[in-house]
Amino acid sequence: MSAHDAAPDSTPTDPAPSIVALGGGHGLYATLSAVRRLTDRVTAVVTVADDGGSSGRLRAELGVIPPGDLRMALAALSADTADARVWTETVQHRFGGTGALAGHSVGNLILAGLTEVVGDPVAALDTLARVLQLRGRVVPMSPIALDIEADVAGLESDPRVSRCIRGQVAVATTPGKVRRVRLIPADPPACTDALDAVLDADLVVLGPGSWFSSVIPHVLVPDLHDALLHTSARKVLVLNLAAEPGETAGFSSERHLHVLAQHAPDFRVDHVLVDAGSVPPGREREHLGRAAARFGAEAAYVDVAETGTHRHDAAKLAEAIATYSTPALGDTRAVSGGGREIVSWL
């Protein structure tokens, strides 16, 4: 090729980062609402142990994986076009009344029907994703429905004795303190697409969410656990803004890290993202910094909450996560105090 035939010079641009978010329910919805601001290359890996409400009914009656958390993840990543907004509102619509459909979400029914028609839950999700013009992809943690079983203390006269409680709803609503959770079956298969996404990611985000039923289960699926250990992606653990009644009542931020370490002693993350307002400077941050170091991580204290609430603000969380996804997206300033506090972004 002659010099005259050569292609014109162009300025190379870095591709958008590939981000995988793991979780379930409202916690995952918050993460997805944030990371979709950074890239279209988003994969949501969603827990499949819900046994309550519309999801529980469809799971029991049709044998499908519980669709509710998957539906919420689809809604979080749907496009902001007129057609997509109508479809998103429709899939999120919940029937009222007192008949057989009362309490069911339209999207749950669509996913259950698509799964029967196409014969595969991942293909069903991809089909509905096209209708919603998804900015990313949603896949289940496992292709089969799972159950959660927990050892809960404080239900017997002797506080040292634990009782075995089975089912996500039962675990979340039973008085007492959850000590440990297990998945049933104990060695469930992982969704192949979820494994591929984790291994190919630039950034993996775990949490926030119901700690024992939406966060910890991801490290209890053996193949997914191994993928999280071997991925070259940066890993960020986002802590909850407050303890959750039922599952983690009375838990400090440090305690959240300790119970995760108990369930996956070899699990490592690069950063633990903490809302600055939920953990004030002082001794509590020192304890949390040491707990983060157990994961090989630094604790970063950032304002990521909606003012006056215990909900994550999507824009603030996006800015915080951007500092980890690629150096081009953010900048941090190191300070003392048992961790690293992010004080500015590009």
UniProtKB/TrEMBL annotation:
Location(s), subcellular: Cytoplasm
Name of the featured protein: Putative gluconeogenesis factor
Family in the record: Belongs to the gluconeogenesis factor family.
Keyword Cytoplasm belongs to the record: yes
Gene3D superfamilies, alphabetized: CofD-like domains
Pfam families on file: CofD (PF01933)
Organism field: Rhodococcus chondri
Role this protein plays: Required for morphogenesis under gluconeogenic growth conditions.
InterPro entries, sorted: CofD, CofD-like_dom_sf, Gluconeogen_factor
Protein keywords: Cytoplasm
Record-linked NCBIfam families: CofD_related (TIGR01826)
